[in-house]
Amino acid sequence: MTSAPYTELVQITHRFYYYLDEWRYTDLVALMREDGVWHRQGKILKGHAQVLAALKERPRTQIIRHVITNAFLEEADETSATLRAYLTAYRFDDGTQHKPPVTIPGPFRLLLVRKRFVREGNAWKIAEAAGVTEFEIAAGK
Description:
The protein has 141 residues and is α+β, with helices and mostly antiparallel strands.
């Protein structure tokens, strides 16, 4: 296993969740293969069109931040790699628009995420993304 793509794959993963938090869905899907799969909230989203359609259903009153930690390469070679990490989500949504900062009681949930990447030319693309909830935080709203 090589660690050469580690930094690049972590950066792509950070961008993925930043774009999600910032409503930049076109930028988010650009990080994925055209036929990429995202296992999200009990649904399997295949391809850019399904991902975009699902994301457009997110409430615009929501303020959310996804924090990635403990990332490591589970496996990697010249053309594919799998990255695992913890994702802690912080969320606020009372149904109205707010500008940060807002007060929240704590994190919303913690997930173990897996991103499978493939190399397309000179770029790494997300081929499959999944997350398993490890903790639901009782105080989260």
